[in-house]
Specification:
By secondary structure, the chain is α+β, with helices and mostly antiparallel strands. It contains five helices and twelve strands. It has a domain of about 170 residues: Rod shape-determining protein MreC, domain 1 (Thrombin, subunit H, Beta Barrel), CATH 2.40.10.340. A six-stranded antiparallel beta barrel has the order 1-2-5-4-3-12. It has a six-stranded antiparallel beta barrel with strand order 6-7-8-11-10-9. The chain is elongated, with a radius of gyration of 31 Å. The relative contact order is 0.12.
Length: about 290
């Protein structure tokens, strides 16, 4: 304490000078309009700079929430677009009561999740997300991001889940060209994570480089019309009866961050029908 008092006594002249300078500045600004204007302008500029810095920091921490909100909006728009395309196709086929039919995607919904682990250089690649059984995630649910198909849920924990990436030979995804009714199987054969092969297409199929490849809708996993990639050209053929196309995937698997898990409340019922449709018919007719 004595040392502190000695310090103030020793430098008292400087403290008095600083006090007079501050008082002088206050009086100068308070009693002179010009100096007051200059002070306020400078103070506002300094405050604006400080506030801008604070805003930049807080905005950075809010990016996660903003990105999640954008994903939800994109998902809704994407589902609406797919639904509209399906309805247009129905109208072109002149089906009865098309306008009175229920929305094609009424049974589909989505859950936004964040990628916490991802591999692209392995023979069999997997992705881990931070959503699980507690969030309504179940095995065999489709997964997409804002650009295209990502994979299919394989193993589910309480608060996390593992996805079989599209970059995995174990997945064979039913796909077709957007403006065609012919469908085939999409498979990744290893190597470059940007490309996959669309196999088992009929030999007489006409296509052009750049044509869009979408899901066929012939499963409970993905609705029809979800984009997968674009045609790069013809691939090697394993059969004289079919043709294979090289497809450039629209999903950038090296930069996956936020994904959407597609849920289908009709999945269980459809699976039961697919297992043994004859049993269902017998039950309806009252036969054992």
């Amino acid at each position: 304490m004595k040392n502190l008092l000695d310090f103030f006594v020793k430098h008292s002249a400087w403290f008095v000078l600083m006090l007079y300078l501050i008082l002088s500045c206050v009086l100068l600004v308070r009693n002179n309009p010009y100096q007051q204007s200059v002070y306020l302008t400078s103070a506002n500029a300094v405050c604006a700079t400080v506030y801008e810095g604070i805003s930049s920091v807080t905005d950075y921490f809010h990016l996660k929430g903003i990105n999640e909100n954008l994903q939800e909006r994109n998902a809704l728009l994407e589902m609406e677009l797919v639904d509209l395309r399906a309805r247009v196709n129905d109208l072109k086929m002149q089906l009865p009561d098309t306008l009175k039919s229920q929305p094609v995607l009424q049974h589909f919904d989505f859950v936004v999740a964040h990628v916490i682990s991802n591999s692209i250089a392995q023979t069999n690649n997997y992705i881990t997300i931070n959503r699980g059984e507690a969030d309504g995630i179940r095995p065999e649910m489709g997964v997409v991001d804002q650009t295209g198909v990502v994979g299919i849920v394989n193993v589910v924990g309480k608060h996390s889940a593992r996805i079989i990436s599209l970059l995995n030979p174990d997945i064979r995804l039913s796909c077709k060209l957007r403006d065609s009714e012919y469908f085939g199987s999409m498979v990744w054969e290893g190597g470059d994570s940007r490309y996959a092969i669309l196999e088992e297409l009929p030999k007489h199929l006409t296509y052009q480089v750049g044509d869009t490849v979408v899901t066929s809708g012939f499963s409970t996993v993905f609705p029809e019309g979800i984009i997968v990639g674009t045609v790069e050209g013809r691939a090697r053929n394993l059969s004289d009866s079919f043709v294979s196309l090289k497809v450039r995937l629209t999903t950038n698997f090296s930069q996956l961050s936020t994904v959407r898990v597609i849920t289908n409340d009709m999945a269980e019922e459809l699976k039961m029908l697919e297992v043994n449709p004859n049993d269902t018919i017998k039950q309806k007719e009252g036969r054992p």
